[in-house]
Structure formats: structure tokens, C-alpha cells
Amino acid sequence: MNRGSGESRGGANLPALRGYNEALLLDLLRGAGPVGLGRTELAARTGLTPQAVSKITARLGADGLVAEAGRAASTGGKPRTLLRLMPDVRHAVGVHLDRDGLRAVRVDLAGRVVAESIGPLDFGAGPEAAVEVVVRAVARVGDPARPPLLGVGLVAPGPLDHRAGVMGRVTGFPSWKGFPMRGVLEGRLGLPVLLDKDTNAGAAAAAGAWLRAAWPDADADADTDAGRGADVGPDADVDVGGPRTCVYLHVGTGLGAGLWLAGGVYRGARSAAGEFGHQVLLLDGPPCRCGARGCVEVLCLDAVARGDLPEAARILGEGAANLVALLDVDRVLLGGRVVAAAPEVFVAGVRAVLAARALDPARPVVALAGAGVAEGAAELVLASLFGRAGG
Known about the structure:
Strand order of the largest sheet: 6-5-4-7-10
Shape: globular
Helix content: 25-40%
Structural class: alpha/beta
Number of helices: 12
Largest sheet: 5 strands, mixed
Number of strands: 15
């Protein structure tokens, strides 16, 4: 349910939970957009006392995070003062590290892109070389004259260990296994770094798209078009609904899935959830770079290489149908450069397979994701400020 339009989350009137309650109010104000909310409404939605809300919003105001947004129309009594989030007082950086390229963005607290850097990357050159590319990209988008950075979200192809911040044996690139990416980058950047899979960032971006939709474009003097989502295609069939259970399917140099379940990214006990591309669809099929045969990744990307995009979409749909049957999600969101090149073909193809295989007439929505993976990486950094489970 959209928190900007009435969802309640329980607060707690305990000093030990001061940080939690601050995050709770910030999240509601973020969802409300520039119009803001009154203190009475904040108290009603959280269960906090009006006195507690006043104290918390005063602290947030002193930190520059919250300011008055005018007064609500009178309903007979004194007009209520509205409060709003000030998005430009803190920023976060998201970096999408792909096998052949890199995209970095700086976003404000509303998730709007205010700077962007795109460049090539040779994943085969090894992690040390990639670190240098990431450091330069963060420097390009992290202008010291801009608001301070909360941290950097770096996302890359899996497998990897999200908790330890260590890379795994990325398919086709065994030299990456065991590289302590988070620790190395924190030492170089002097900032907190979050490491996660690119598909998890895609899920976080897709689930948070409704929040960004509540805000107008970033300032006209921004370094790039706000929130343009370079790897999610045009505006048609873009999902910006509220956060629900969903799978995000990424088709780029590989295939993967991000899972948004129970209000947050589901990573699994070993950060290994979402290896969607390596489910076997065809026994004794063509060899995949993972060592198995007939994986959805090799079948789909071989069809892309032949120029048969409808067949690639059908294969993607068959894999998606397996996930829907297993997890009973209500949204299947598509992203990545291959999807962006032919969005209508992929959305229609996946929809057709799900319709043919549906066991329930209430089929999930199939749409393009509302933002790119780099934006999702930054969203994972912002999650802790707003008390969300994404990070």
C-alpha cells in the first residue's frame, strides 16, 4: 500500500527508539511528496503522540531534513501547518558495475537523479582495475560542492556475499572470487559502501518507483535528466505502483532476478537468491557458461544474438512463469539493456506466456521497471535513513 496515501506503520514512544521514529516520519514525508503532511496526520499514521511528533520533527528541522510546506486549507479551525522532506540536503551514489560497462548516479533523498556518469569497463581485467574505474566515477558524480553523501551503493553481477561485502565467482570471471570489494572501496572513498547484486538493486528500484513519482523533476541545473532510468526503456507500460510482492527480471550481459518479498529485498541465507538465469529449461540443451546445459540464460541470450527477440521474450516468460508459480508474486517487472532495446516485444512476450500458463485468473502485472539498476543501488543506501528493509 502507498504510504503517501495512508498506510500506517507503528511507532514507539521510547527514547531508545528515537532513530527508528525519525526514520518512520521521514519515510511518510518522502511518500507525501512536496505537498507534505501535518503533525496531526503524522501522529495518526504512526501511533506516536502529538508531543512526540513535535519533538522529532523539531530535531529533523534543526538538521535541515524537514521544513514547513505551507498551510492546509482550513476546515473550520486553525489551518494546519504542513511539513515536507527537504530532498537536497543529503545525497547518495549508486554504481552499476556490469561486465562491459559502468553507470554511476548521484540521487537526492527523493531518489531523483541529479548527476550521472557512464563509461566502459572490462570485467575481465580483474577487480583491482574495476576499483579504479569506480573511484573515478564516484568522483565525477560526487561534486564536493553538492550536499554530503550518505554512502555508495555498488551493485554487480552475482554471486557475491552481501553481508561480508565480498565478491563471489562471477560466471565466466573466476578471478573475482573472494575479492573484498566493500572494504577496499571504503578505504579508497572514505565513505560507507554497500555491496549487492545488480538484480537486487533492480528490485529495490522497482519497488520504490512510486516514491520518486511523488516528486517533480530535480532542479533544472542538474547534471542530467532526472530519473531517466537508462536501462529501463521508454515510458510505455512502466510500473510505478506501490510496493508489493514482485520479481524484477534483468536481461543484459546475463540474466538474473531480484525478489521483493515481505516489504524488502529477499537475498537468502547466503546472498544467493535470484540466480534466475541458471534454472534449466532444456535438458541436454546448449552449454551455459555456468557449466550446466539448457539454462534460461543461454537459451534467451542465444535467441537475442540471432535477432529473434520474440523467441527471447518467450523463453524469458517461461522462466518467469516458473517463478510466479513458486512465489505467487503479483508483479513481474522487466529491465536491462536488452529489454530497453525492444520493450514492447518483451512485455508482450512475457505476458503471453504467463497468460497461457496461469493457474489462477488473477495473473500478475507484467511491466517495465520504473527505474534503472544504478538508481536502485542508491535506493539501497537510502533505505536505512527511511527505516526500510531494502538495504
